[in-house]
Design goal:
This protein has 65 residues and is mainly α. The relative contact order is 0.05.
């Protein structure tokens, strides 16, 4: 028993597909905006790192094991 896809089905399918694509684009843009804001906020809060200098000792490290 085969069924054929009616024009009403294709119309609903097209409408739902367009809605899904639109919703995906809107949500992606909104979440990207949130991510950019968080990254900018984090960049402003962290102080610049200074390179760690090893402490100088007055002895030499042996090259031989």
């Amino acid at each position: 028993m085969g069924t054929s896809l009616t024009p009403e089905f294709w119309e609903r399918f097209a409408v739902l597909l367009v809605l899904a694509v639109g919703l995906t684009c809107v949500l992606t843009a909104a979440l990207d905006g949130v991510a950019v804001r968080l990254l900018r906020r984090r960049a402003h809060r962290t102080p610049p790192r200074t390179p760690h200098r090893p402490q100088r000792d007055n002895h030499r490290v042996s090259v031989h094991s």
